[in-house]
Amino acid sequence: MALEAALPDAALPSRSPQAPRRPRFARPHWTLVAGALLLVLVAVTLCLGPTLAPYDPTAQTLIRRLKPPSEAHWLGTDHLGRDVLSRLLVGGHFAVIIAAVTLTLSAVFGTLIGVISSRKGGLVDEIAMRSVDLLISFPEVVVAIFLIALLGPGYGTLILALTVVGWTPFARLARGLAIEINAKPYIRAAEILGCSRRFIILRHIIPNAIGPISAMAFLRFGHKMITVGGLSYIGLGIQPPHADWAAMMAEAQPYIERAPLLVVCPGLAIFLTALSVTWIGQGLSQTGDKP
């Protein structure tokens, strides 16, 4: 040790280079973990809601209307004497299902349009992107109100109304990702080997673009939930006698000073559901940015 300290650095024997580190998996962002745990809690509650509900959510008992929280009714009763906890446990099924179905249809259709337009190019790409620009200029709620007024309220109309404009952000994102992927050498190699356009899209482009598109889908889920809730709030969404969180808020508005829990509880349920999925989308988009 003393001899090594006395020798200059140039005289020291060269150390062997370190072995390259093995690649590590990207650490999940904290929002991804928190959102996943919160979403599991919400999903389990919604799945077990009909079983856990202590009362029939549609049963009316007018002599017990607007009762405060008690041992019999943990969150009290509404203006028709219905148990708030029971309605809260089953009130999110339709909104979550409609938002999930609408988002799935929008993501699939928008991705296909964006990828195909990037591969075709020319007039097809120009028509597709101008259509996206035209539809995206209309607010989603306005289009939904127009179609519901034209076709009448219903679950099918609600899904159609939210899908008509909902696919446009996915088409724009998928087109941008596809243009970037099309410039990769392996795409050029596949074209030289004579691979069909369908094979290139399904085997190379969509699998490489699925990550950002999935992150965007999770981020858009909260927006869909709020849109469905807004339509139900004004009476154009989920119709009675089905329990719905947004409809519960609308019905409780005249009694907010006397029974604030009638508004706070369903509003908190919508907020937590939208927050959980938004956190997952944010976590997916940020996972891997930091070592």
Topology as H/E string?
Answer: HHHHHHHHHHHH
Beta-strand segment tally: 0
The average pLDDT is 83
CATH architectural group: Orthogonal Bundle
Q: Would you state the CATH class?
A: Mainly Alpha
User: Structural class of the secondary elements?
Assistant: mainly alpha
Low-confidence sequence ranges: 1-25
Helix coverage percent = 55-70%
**CATH domain topology:** MetI-like fold
Strand content: under 5%
Strand count, sense and barrel status of the largest sheet are: none
Separation of termini?
A: 36 Å
| CATH homologous superfamily (4th level) name | MetI-like
Number of helices: 12
**What is the overall shape?**
elongated
Radius of gyration: 27 Å
Tell me the domain tally.
1
Describe the structure.
- This protein has 291 residues and is mostly helical.
- The protein has a single domain (30-45, 74-286), classed as Orthogonal Bundle (MetI-like fold), CATH 1.10.3720.10.
- 67% of the residues lie in helices and 0% in strands.
- The longest helix has 37 residues, at 197-233.
Task: Describe the structure concisely for a colleague.
By secondary structure, the chain is mainly alpha-helical.
List keywords for this structure.
about 290 residues; mainly alpha; MetI-like fold; 12 helices; about 0% strand; elongated; disordered N terminus
Write the layout of secondary structure elements.
Blueprint: H1 2-6, H2 30-52, H3 84-90, H4 93-120, H5 122-136, H6 140-151, H7 155-166, H8 168-182, H9 185-192, H10 197-233, H11 245-252, H12 261-286
